[in-house]
Amino acid sequence: MTAENRTAYADQQSLVYENGSVQVVIKVASGRSLPTDLAVDVELRSGSRIQGSVAVDDLIGLARHENVTTVKPP
Q: Are 21 and 54 in contact, with CB atoms under 8 Å apart?
């Protein structure tokens, strides 16, 4: 989030970064759903795991959301 050049940082870390968003895998807590107050472009869903793109500026809010247990690169 604090990288001066997000594109270069994403390349160095092997992250998929495009148009201000990064591809992640989100795991939601049992019986919970993906937060609706944060925009996640869902690509794949399997049980409690969701793969999609989220704005870099929303990563901390997503990771701290009570419905979410983990957010990590795919």
A: yes
Cβ contact 26:62 at 8 Å: yes
Classify residue 22 by burial, with Cβ atoms within 10 Å: 0-12, 13-18, 19+: buried
Contact of 72 with 14, CB cutoff 8 Å: no
**Tens of pLDDT along 8-44?**
989 999 999 999 999 999 999 999 999 988 889 999 9
Rounded CA separation 64/14 (Å): 23
Global pTM reads 0.88
